[in-house]
Write a structure and sequence with these properties.
Largest sheet: none
Protein name: Integrase catalytic domain-containing protein
Radius of gyration: 27 Å
Strand content: under 5%
Structural class: mainly alpha
Order of helices and strands: HHH
Organism: Thalassoglobus neptunius
Low-confidence stretches: none
Number of helices: 3
Number of strands: 0
Length: about 90
């Protein structure tokens, strides 16, 4: 299991200050929360490497998986056509 990194107090204060500034500029609480969530998703998926993905970000891992050709199982050989006599037995 990986150790979770905690945010530094300075980072939390910065987030709160950014949110407060957005509210003071007339943004709604919903808009502020949406911005915070978008920023978190960007960091989580595009900037923060994950040990469970071999040190890649989820975006890098997804791109890598998409570039690997999918193995298609071989098809069964065609069956011989039915003969009229096969239908009678």
């Amino acid at each position: 299991m990986t150790k979770r990194r905690r945010r530094k107090p300075e980072q939390i204060v910065k987030l709160l200050q950014e949110g407060q500034a957005m509210l003071a500029a007339g943004k709604s609480l919903a808009e502020v929360l949406q911005k915070l969530i978008q920023d978190w998703r960007m960091t989580y998926n595009h900037r923060r490497p994950h040990s469970s993905l071999g040190g890649l970000t989820p975006a890098e891992f997804s791109t890598q998986c998409a570039s690997v050709p999918e193995k298609v199982p071989p098809t069964a050989p065609p069956s011989p056509p039915l003969q009229h006599t096969d239908l009678l037995t």
